[in-house]
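look at this:
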Amino acid sequence: MHYFAKNLKYLRRKMGMSQEEFGKFVGLNRGNIASYEKQTAEPSIMNLSRIGKHLKVELSDLIDKDLAGIDELISRIEDFDVEGQNTTGVAEELLMESLEEHQFKLKKFRKRTDEMASILEGFKQFHKFRMEKFGGLSDDVKKMALDYEKLLEVLEDVLSTNKHMLKLLDSNEE
């Protein structure tokens, strides 16, 4: 729920409502709304659906998109939309700024993914070395080692998913 808290707070304020007023509007209490906005709790699927319905926002947009950022970009474009002026160049410039920012974030994500893959490989090699070096381990240590290996597998799956996602994004850019 990357953007949910930020979007909830943004849209609630855009509607001019307090947390208490918004809570009543969607059938929740102020505490629920406050905890969602502070990210100390996540809404159940029912509450999430209820919030999206009342805000008239798709759940995927509410969770995955920076709605405040999109509105800001649109507002900046509209600010330049003066009657009789051709604002196409300004709009293109603002869109390019936004694209460059996203490309920068993508580059950072790619770098972190590569760094994590390198760190994970180091952990795997170290674990393999330790397991080969120390034979005759107790059953408890063997169980912990198996749990550790499962954790490494999960991390490999996450990294594989990240790399697959990056390939998809790269193919969309072409």
